[in-house]
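REVIEWER CHECKLIST
Item 1: Sequence provided? yes
Item 2: Single chain? yes
Item 3: Sequence as submitted:
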Amino acid sequence: MSEATRPTRLIVEAQTKPKMPRHIKLRHDAGRDAWLLLAPERVFSPDPIAVEVLKLCDGSRSVTDMAAQLARDFQAPEETIRADILEMLQDLADKGVVKS
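Item 4: Structure as written out by the authors:
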């Protein structure tokens, strides 16, 4: 694949407005009482904190907005939450699970 045809890698930054592609689904499995992130031929089991972040990934909120909301909800330092969100979303973007 040439440089011109290679897809551009998403770099998640504070102003990125992440969302999940249509083929990725966040679903609650009632039988297991667990959240699952379903992707073609892959299943991820996000932890409870990741689930809260993924629920906010709708393409309308920036990472900064999400960090502010979670800081209010969980009474935690916004800077720490933002750093954790950036790291998690970058990992998921590298796997093709989130886009902007």
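Item 5: Key structural point noted by reviewer: Strands lie at 25-29, 34-39, 42-44.
Item 6: Recommendation: ____
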